[in-house]
Design a protein that fits this description.
heterodimer, A: alpha/beta, TIM Barrel, nine-stranded mixed sheet, three-stranded antiparallel sheet, 17 helices, 39% helix, 14% strand, globular, B: alpha/beta, 2 domains, seven-stranded mixed beta barrel, seven-stranded parallel sheet, 10 helices, 24% helix, 23% strand, Radical SAM core domain-containing protein (chain A), rSAM_sf (chain A), Sulphatase_maturase_rSAM (chain A)
Chain lengths: 469, 359
């Protein structure tokens, strides 16, 4: 019997999480690693490893073939569809304290696509080798240039077989034309709701009347297109985070069943006004407390609110193929089909990359709409976007579920080769995956209730929490 | 029941032949056209041959591919044009004796491949044809040659082959790869416990043979449908089997969990095998929950909708072939009837599901 290499990490004093390269995990008491390292595991442990697919007898037997399949499905292979972020304008009618894109003032000149740029953007989209696309409009505030959104939408609906639009809007102002644009099944809204009125005001609008406008606009949009096509996320200011109960209540009030807790991104204005966003300790503690509150509340009310990111990480632990969320996939090789086109026609591999260029930290543009993609730069960026061979990640049981974020590493440390454990991305994800594993192995009925509902199951199968004998 | 055999009058001295009932004008030499229509009897002509069909209307057989057996005065409806459930019975021989077998094996084999080839060439465009038995791969060389010959002229067709998986070899890999897009392999696995599986299929060592052969299908990238009839013998182990499938058979395209068919050995062993999932769905639910968490496809075959808890009903397919499917008198008022698999023709209420409740 040959055992596939196992990585391990202590969950607490007594228990260790182990996983192989295919993402098959199990829990063991801490003595297991010692026996594994000394090649002295017991016969019952051997049988356990064989049954759970961590071992095989000969290359090509069923256990071996099953493992190869599971391993290969853990690797993200793109190609079928595109996800492109467009910035038709960098101007915005708000000035949020944590604005990660360093937005331009409402009256500023030279921060919108001109008609030539629009044509070139359409040409770029036309050249993508896909028939399915999701186009996300970011800003600035995209609805300031509804005309550009309409032009892109009309083109994309002709060019692609399947298309979806997400408008990331602050919903601060609505008019009849905007409402008409929203009145198509292929248009979704993503907006920011930072929680209770006063916190939303402090973070985003600086004016209670503007917050009131936003809240009534959100209600109107949900009423018009239904809650399924509207999502919202709160950005959490760690200097004064909202009480979790209040935050959840604010989301429930609008009928949301999912929210996505987002830390202030250490980009743009936030670098000066939110220096605490640079480190992860406070965030991880708040996040854990928030999840505890959420789970207890779900059990109490019988209604189920989801925290999207934790649910996503949990689902990635349980099964391969959940690569829809661009922040967490591996490999995540930059291509034109997963690009950001800025207000000036520059093309970036990610939203964060354009933010770094904006503050002139480093220019990570991978081309522009006039000259096309810069293949040399793409090739240079590619190796940083895979975690399989990272000298730290190869020791981590969470590697198969995790990803990379070299752009964030650059933003915070000025380089991409910092030891993983020193990076915000790694610290944040170790904390999330530790929490996820604790929850999977929890026998607390409240936890089981929330997890089974998040997974869409009637009960939580014991086979999801294997424990070595 | 829809008849699969029709009474047919024909010159008894003729050899059996395959013909297609032309829907309008004949499209090839094998097509038969209607030349007489009397009370209860239709007269057809193909080439110089004339034959009659009894007790059927022209519209019911239009487009059907028939194997006419003059000696026995029977026409086998090899392909019914209007049905998605067409199956060629490759052989009645089998090396396994499954407790619930609906088609008990017979010792002798009659080679029908020439007729099946002729029929396949006349099949409707894009048809999926079932190949079943007995165990079709007992005649593997002839079967593979037949499939090659069909695809040589009809690469629009595909086959759904039911096999016990005992007869694949490493040397088949290239052939399996070549046809992977057009062949769906339905292979039964009843338990991850070898002793339980072997007991159910009545063959010691069957699981040990099945296991590496399933790996071959995986390595070939073949489309694999795992099939598990739920029985009293294996119901308690379904969760464990689900875990086995998620870990060792992740390449399976789907897992079909099936209810028993009360015919053949299934009728003989009904009392000791039938598992009444209408009063105990727990083991099935746990197995399905695990497959859902692992994002692997599951389907329920032959489960009337009212026997399945609402959370799992979307998995229950209308799986029972049209010619042997029925509803019960109680179903007359049910709002789910149109989406329901219903029951096998040979299902009996007195020893069937306890909980049949029109919705």
């Amino acid at each position: 019997m040959q055992i596939w290499p196992l990585r391990f990490r202590d969950l607490d004093d007594q228990r260790t999480i182990l996983a192989d390269d295919s993402g098959a995990y199990f829990l063991a008491e801490s003595g297991f690693v010692d026996r594994y390292a000394r090649d002295a595991i017991t016969p019952p442990e051997e049988r356990f490893l064989r049954e759970k697919g961590h071992a095989f007898e000969w290359a090509g037997d069923l256990a071996h073939t099953g493992f190869l399949t599971r391993w290969s499905r853990r690797q993200h292979v793109g190609g079928g569809s595109a996800y492109v972020i467009l910035i038709p304008t960098l101007r915005c009618n708000l000035k949020c304290s944590y604005c990660q894109v360093s937005r331009a003032p409402l009256a500023a000149q030279g921060f919108d696509w001109d008609s030539e740029t629009l044509q070139k953007v359409l040409g770029f989209l036309d050249g993508l080798p896909v028939e399915e696309i999701q186009i996300e409009f970011q800003g600035g505030e995209p609805f300031l240039r509804l005309d550009l959104l309409q032009a892109v939408a009309a083109f994309a609906r002709r060019r692609f077989q399947r298309v979806r639009f997400v408008v990331c809007s602050n919903l601060q102002t609505l008019d009849e034309d905007i409402l008409a644009f929203l009145d198509s099944e292929d248009v979704l809204i993503s907006t920011s709701l930072d929680g209770p009125h006063q916190i939303h005001t402090r973070n985003r609008t600086a004016d209670s009347a503007l917050t009131k406008n936003f809240l009534s606009n959100l209600e109107r949009v949900i009423g018009l297109i239904g809650p399924a096509r509207v999502s919202a996320l709160p950005t959490i200011d760690m200097d004064d985070p909202p009480d979790p109960e209040d935050l959840i209540a604010a989301y429930e009030a609008f009928g949301f069943t999912s929210l996505y807790l987002r830390p202030v991104n250490y980009q743009g204005f936030a670098r000066k006004s939110h220096p605490a966003a640079r480190t992860s300790t406070a965030w991880n503690a708040y996040y854990r407390g928030f999840i505890d509150t959420l789970i207890a509340r779900n059990a109490l009310t019988g209604r189920v609110m989801e925290e999207f990111y934790l649910a996503h990480c949990l689902r990635r632990i349980l099964a391969p193929g959940l690569d829809g969320h661009t922040d967490l996939r591996n490999p995540n090789i930059p291509t034109g089909a997963n690009a950001v086109i800025d207000f000036d026609g520059q093309i970036y591999p990610s939203d964060e990359a354009r933010m770094l260029a904006r503050i002139r930290r480093v220019n990570l543009a991978i081309g522009n709409v006039s000259d096309g993609l810069d293949q040399e730069k793409l090739a240079l960026l590619a190796p940083g976007h895979i975690n399989n061979f990272d000298p730290d990640c190869i020791h981590c049981p969470y590697q198969p579920f995790c990803g990379t974020d070299p752009i964030d590493d650059l933003s915070r440390s000025g380089r991409i080769d910092v030891p993983r454990q020193d990076s915000w991305f790694c610290q944040r994800h170790l904390a999330v995956f530790d929490l996820a594993m604790e929850l999977i192995y929890s026998k607390d009925p409240a936890v089981e209730f929330t997890l089974s509902r998040w997974f869409g199951l009637e009960t939580l199968p014991d086979a999801l929490r294997p424990i070595a004998p | 029941m829809i008849p699969l055999r029709l009474k047919s009058e024909c010159d008894r001295t003729l050899a059996p032949f395959v013909t297609r009932i032309a829907e309008e004008e004949p499209r090839c030499a094998e097509d038969a056209t209607l030349w007489s229509e009397e009370a209860g009897t239709l007269g057809y002509q193909t080439g110089q041959i004339k034959f009659r069909l009894s007790d059927v209307a022209p519209a019911e057989v239009a487009g059907d591919v028939l194997l006419v057996d003059p000696r026995r005065q029977i026409a086998h409806r090899l392909i019914r044009a209007a049905s998605p459930h067409n199956t060629f019975l490759i052989t009645e021989q089998c090396d396994q004796l499954c407790l619930m077998c609906s088609q008990p094996p017979k010792p002798q084999h009659q080679d029908m491949f020439d007729h099946f080839l002729a029929a396949s060439r006349l099949a409707p465009t894009g048809a999926q044809i079932g190949l079943s038995g007995g165990e079709p791969l007992l005649h593997k060389d002839a079967l593979f040659a037949f499939i090659d010959a069909v695809f040589a002229t009809r690469d629009d067709l595909c086959f759904h082959i039911l096999t016990n998986g005992q007869y694949f070899e490493r040397a088949d890999l290239a052939w399996l790869r070549k046809h992977r897009a057009r062949l769906l392999w339905g292979v039964p696995i009843y338990s991850d416990n070898p002793a339980t599986h072997d007991e159910i299929v009545g063959k010691p060592g069957a699981f040990a043979q099945l296991s590496p052969n399933l790996a071959l299908l995986g390595l070939a990238g073949a489309a694999l449908e795992l099939r598990t009839v739920v029985l009293r013998q294996n119901a308690p182990g379904l969760s464990s089997l689900a875990d086995f499938i998620a870990r060792h058979l992740p390449f399976a395209a789907t897992w079909a969990i099936m209810q028993m068919e009360r015919i053949g050995y299934g009728r003989m062993n009904w009392g000791r095998c039938f598992f009444d999932s209408s009063i105990d769905f727990a083991s099935l639910g746990a197995a399905i929950d695990l497959m859902r968490a692992r994002r692997q496809d599951v389907t329920l075959y032959n489960f009337p909708l009212c026997t399945v808890p609402p959370a799992y009903r979307d998995l229950a397919a209308r799986s029972i072939s049209d010619w042997k499917q029925k509803y019960l008198p109680a179903c007359a008022t049910c709002s789910l009837r149109d989406d329901c698999a219903g029951f096998f023709e040979w299902y009996r209420e007195e020893d069937g599901f306890m909980e049949i409740r029109p919705q």
